[in-house]
Amino acid sequence: MSPRPEIAGARRVVVKVGSSSLTSLPGGLDEPRLAALVDVLGAVHAQGREVVLVSSGAIAAGLTPLGVVGRPRDLATAQAAASVGQLRLVQTYADAFARHDVTVGQVLLTADDLTRRSHYRNAQRTLERLLTFGVLPIVNENDTVATEEIRFGDNDRLAALVAHVARADALLLFSDVDGVYDGDPRQGPAQLLDTVRDPADLGEVSLGTARRNGVGTGGMATKVEAALIAAQAGVPVVVTSAAQAAAALAGDQVGTRFAVMGPRPRARQFWLRFATRPRGRLHLDEGAVRAVRERGASLLPAGVTGVAGEFLADDPVELVGPDGVVVARGLVAYDAKELPPLLGRKTSELDPEYRRELVHRDEMVLVRRPSLG
């Protein structure tokens, strides 16, 4: 039996590969390494398993054709490189997968596509239909149009969100690092962590151990954060190198496994907790914190001591306790400018149009922020 049966038996997997595993400077796209990964994924597809590939590399693939040396420092140049590189990257994938009789489809997303509820559901339907047709979706952030304000920041987090959107059975994060260590192996002896069952298992892990080759944006910190998001949402994760892809997908004991840390939430709960971008904060007193956290109650004006940010009704906000710790996230029922006169007052004291909850419990999800040591 496989040491990791939940990975070996995963019918639908999301695989994320970083720029460092597909590209190099100054040569841009490394086609032999890309072909080696495709050979592995093509074999997995031939087994009847479904694969969603989240691939970085578009910007790096566009640098050489544009004559740009090093990763662009300005957004416009990065977007120009993505425009050129995305075509080359996906065409290279399409040609490589064609040798395995696999049809690929391109799915470009911005953070806005997953932070807006309607867009989130549309992305879910699109991925499901592609998989129904036997197509292997290749997902990437739409770097050509994404601004700094609406970027995911890295494809590791994107992959964790896609794993839930696609209802995946497992997530595999591949880079040029063979796993998560309890220290920086470049600085001295360090032990590879085999399994993480709780954020506390990370201990004093160094989150800066990923080697950088000048073309990637992520690091080990982003992989750990993404792995915790997925694991806490019911999806097992393996973090390892692209060279170990075949072994990892077979459930062999390679890299670092993040065991499932919680039940798979409903899509709306996951969206609220991980995919929304808070537009502001509501500061709660201790009584309101207990009511929300322990009794699952809605948030009423009486328990709110302050408001931060500019937001409109139905925007996502964070609920913060007196100690500054985020307790929950939810959709607020009022505009920010309406709230100051309501704070600290009992519902019975308010005009009828203001007697509804600030955040209803059905529009709220508790937050347990991952501890990264």
Automatic annotation (TrEMBL):
It is found in: Cytoplasm. ATP binds at K16, S175, D176, T217, G218, G219, M220, A221, T222, K223. Its main location: cytoplasm. It catalyses: L-glutamate + ATP = L-glutamyl 5-phosphate + ADP. PROSITE patterns: GLUTAMATE_5_KINASE, PUA. CDD domains: AAK_G5K_ProB, PUA_G5K. Substrate binds at S56, D143, N155. Pathway: Amino-acid biosynthesis; L-proline biosynthesis; L-glutamate 5-semialdehyde from L-glutamate: step 1/2. Transmembrane segments: none annotated. One of its GO terms (cellular component) is cytosol. PANTHER family: GLUTAMATE 5-KINASE (PTHR43654), ISOPENTENYL PHOSPHATE KINASE (PTHR43654:SF1). Catalyzes the transfer of a phosphate group to glutamate to form L-glutamate 5-phosphate. Belongs to the glutamate 5-kinase family. This is Glutamate 5-kinase. It comes from Geodermatophilus africanus.
